[in-house]
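Following up on my earlier thread - several people asked me to post the actual chain instead of describing it. Fair enough. Here it is, all 668 residues.
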Amino acid sequence: MTRRTNQRAERLRKLHLSLSTISLILFSTLPALAFHSDTVPDWVRTAAQQKIPSYPPDTNAVVLLEDTTYTVAPDGSATEHFRSVVKILRPQGRDEGRIAVPFDKDTKILSLHIWSIGPDGHEYAVKDSEQVEFGYPGQGNLFMDLKIRAAEAPGRDPGGVVAYEYEQRTHPYLTEKTWFFQSELPRLNQSFTLELPPGFTHGTVWAHSRELPAIDLEHQRWRWEMKDVPPIDLDQVELRPSEFSLEGRMTVHYTGPTIPAPTEGTWQSIGQWYQALAKDRLAATPEIAAKANELAANKTDFYDKTEAIAEFVQKQVRYFVIEMGIGGYQPHYAADIFRNRYGDCKDKATVLVSMLSTVGVHGALVMVDHRRGVVDPDAPSIVGDHMIAAIEIPKGYNSPRLRSVVTAKSGRRYLIFDPTWDKTAFGQLAHNLQGGYGVLVEGPDSQIIQFPLLSPDLNTIHRTATFQLEPDGSLKGSVTEKRFGDLSEHRRDLYISGDAKEQTKFLDRLLGQDFTTFSVSDFKVQNAEALNKDLTTSYSLTADHFGKPMGPLLMVRPRVLGSEELYADRKERHNIPINLSETMQEQDDYTIELPSGYAVDEVPDPVKLDLDFASYESSSVVKDHTLHYTRTYTVREVTLPADRYPDVQKLSGVIAADEQSKAVLKKQ
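Reply from S.P.:
Thanks for posting it. Predicted structure:
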């Protein structure tokens, strides 16, 4: 996640922060906590005494109270006052007793108080000296100025209650604040209070929830209250979307006479804000122009010219994140990115747009989230975590190689390209972005755009094989597999970056799903780095005990290898959309030469099922002493409403039955 959002403080405790890392730090640095009686505030005791509804037995904890007050000053700075009380219901809920509040140079923690009530009724208070501060435990390709103040509350056992309260001063980079009022835990009582200076006005947008009216507290104060908000729990849900695409949130946009550049709750104003933030960073230098012209030299076709530059940024600018203060939003200068040859997603998109501008091609930044559904077209905000690019296509230019194309309200056509995804071919778009939304940053023409769903034939697997079956059930043959699009991404990475041991282990694990004992020889890989060509693998295969002798009969599975089983179960989805991940098409074509002295006594019935969002068909045909199996599995949509789950279960059952169906050979 490379572009900070205004949600990072709210989400870090649950998403970004490694609880195991916090535990290690706390256990090694915190002194033993003393028992302090009569220290828990009345508001904590009151919340703890609430009667809790009956929850499913796997509910780890419940939020008894969560209150946020957001106070904006005339100069645009803001103070956030936050209270939370959580009751732990199961041992797995103990993590709720690990409190972590993030801060940096622009978000100063004014106070942090932590209390708890053990299952035995003992009350505890964590002193300031018992809290620790440490830097963000980032990965090897990440540097942030973010720090964390944290503590581990005592008595955090089932039946215990943990509460904390903090006040934090912030200097928002734009005039919006998002209230996230739904998560993986049920919530009994919560509120959000907005306090504005005289002369300020505000508006709200709501995502994944019905809009609630505000309670006017007078004197420029408003409160929104919610009770009994259900959790978003996807742990046991198959084919699940991202929880962030379902959790309810409200974004407040505010403006006032002392705010120079407010966002007004429109996608246009958000795009204009970001354009002002990034504009000077896009400036090209002579070095950038020289490299772009070198890459585009002797290329007159638009696709060829832009592909050369895009692939340079995609492959030669290393992904590395450096975020300090507003650098979580604002890209570095294109000149620095180009010179250093590294940057995060917004940096890579910035240097791409900069390089293209020097060869007469216009590009724009696009603010997105890498999880489809998080950016809600009806709720303008900067909630999101990623940045990609839109490359304007010349008027009248068309090419079948331009696949991920959108048309803006202005009539301009753009190719949507993500230079961070280094295994996605130029002209295409990673499956997790397809069908989602992003903010096209084009000044006054900024707008929300929807990304296209690519055709299934742009994301493919095609397996062909010829085998000879022996009377003892052993199988020998050769296999060729071609992959294109996102379905080739993992394997391209393996064959480019993995060593021989990793590649062998992967193939063994893969074939082990279909064979008990086997050996592979003559393994070859082609086009691993050529993203716009089929990744082709071929090998010779020998498998013992493939056919199952039963007296004079020999049982054989026509679908020799390759499984595409859908993981659908019989549980109700309770209005949770179905995520099929990606459009795709898989084709298998296998020929099995039958052993001498055997004839086919029975073959599986042909299968043909079309459910509009997907189709599946297969057939097993006997001809010239061979068994020929073919199948085609196509997925045309990526998101379905919950009420289509019976159809998904039907499809799942058809695929599973076909993959395990047997042909019966009889000895003559």
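The two ends are 64 Å apart (CA to CA). That should answer part of your original question.
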